[in-house]
Write a sequence for this structure.
């Protein structure tokens, strides 16, 4: 089992409320069905801002698409929020979150909001969002906070207000499954450069704020667990974890992770993570060309009672049916290669009827606790 004494240095503020004991996390998880869900962005939205801003928010579309998710056997959804939406209109944003939670709950789906995200465009801006770039995966997704706010300490007070405000509003709401504090905090366009100096600079910016973000969320005393998913590298021992991964795992009530590898490697990572002795949630998977498919991954997840959230639901303005590498995407567009992510066409028809049949079958029977 991994222990805090395996790590050197303080990874959480001493004055912050402490994370859940492992037995409390297991009691919470034992009271849930096996969780199978998706990362949900409605098809009309290119990013988090277009999802939630009043001018583009479309509850009817959200209702329709979450109904499709429920019909597949899904009972959970991970959704991305954004700090700028709180700054723009806190009351209106809160009301729209409440409306989405109502719609999801109506369909038997519990929701995991994501508070911050380090992926893609580092300079988000409110207002009309650009159109998707042809042939490009997730071409309009934006970071939260953007790099200008991340690197400006004077803006951290408003980020604290955003976290405490949102979590406080729903701290005892049974429609909320859990809080994902920060999506892939060590990701971003600069990661692909593999420049150690650039990566160190990013880590130096993110790590203190990640620690604070956990403390801010916990200060609202939510009844739901907090987490942040690790996704890179070798997790087979504490000493192999990066500083950011140590912060994530030491502050998470339940352990979450992302994995887009084949089933053998997925199963190996489950084995590594069992050493934490906490419930496990795979909050991103499904990359068909790499071998991360429903048929390959879900049997392992079910056997070990690992929650599983695929990336995407309906093919829309995020264009995440396309691959990370744009060079592959003309093959996908021509139907010569499989979709990368996503499950349904915009009209609700399945990309693969066989996948849908499998999903319905595997979610129809309960899992057994490993």
């Amino acid at each position: 089992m991994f222990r805090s004494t395996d790590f050197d240095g303080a990874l959480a503020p001493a004055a912050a409320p402490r994370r859940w004991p492992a037995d409390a996390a297991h009691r919470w998880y034992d009271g849930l069905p096996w969780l199978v869900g998706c990362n949900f962005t409605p098809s009309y939205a290119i990013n988090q801002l277009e999802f939630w801003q009043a001018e583009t928010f479309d509850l009817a579309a959200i209702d329709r698409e979450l109904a499709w998710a429920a019909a597949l056997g899904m009972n959970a959804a991970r959704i991305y929020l954004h700090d700028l939406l709180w700054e723009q209109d806190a009351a209106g944003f809160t009301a729209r979150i409440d409306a989405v939670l109502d719609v999801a709950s109506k369909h038997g789906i519990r929701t995991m909001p994501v508070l911050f995200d380090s992926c893609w465009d580092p300079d988000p801006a409110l207002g009309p969002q650009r159109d998707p770039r042809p042939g490009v995966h997730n071409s309009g997704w934006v970071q939260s906070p953007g790099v200008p706010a991340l690197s400006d300490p004077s803006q951290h007070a408003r980020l604290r207000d955003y976290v405490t405000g949102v979590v406080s509003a729903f701290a005892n709401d049974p429609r909320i499954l859990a809080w994902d504090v920060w999506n892939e905090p060590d990701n971003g366009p600069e990661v692909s450069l593999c420049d150690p100096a650039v990566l160190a600079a990013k880590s130096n910016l993110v790590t203190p704020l990640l620690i604070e973000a956990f403390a801010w969320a916990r200060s609202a005393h939510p009844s739901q667990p907090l987490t942040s998913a690790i996704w890179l590298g070798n997790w087979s021992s504490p000493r192999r974890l990066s500083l950011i991964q140590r912060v994530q795992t030491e502050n998470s009530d339940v352990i979450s992770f992302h994995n887009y590898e084949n089933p053998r490697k997925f199963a190996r990572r489950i084995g590594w993570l069992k050493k934490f002795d906490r419930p496990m949630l795979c909050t991103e998977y499904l990359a068909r060309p790499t071998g991360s498919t429903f048929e390959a991954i879900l049997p392992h997840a079910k056997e070990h009672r690992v929650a599983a959230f695929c990336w995407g639901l309906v093919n829309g303005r995020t264009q995440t049916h396309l691959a990370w590498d744009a060079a592959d995407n003309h093959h996908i567009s021509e139907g010569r290669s499989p979709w990368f992510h996503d499950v349904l066409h915009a009209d609700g028809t399945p990309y693969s009827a066989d996948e849908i049949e499998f999903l319905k079958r595997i979610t129809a029977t309960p899992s057994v606790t490993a």
Notes: The chain has one domain: 4-364. The chain has twelve helices and eight strands.
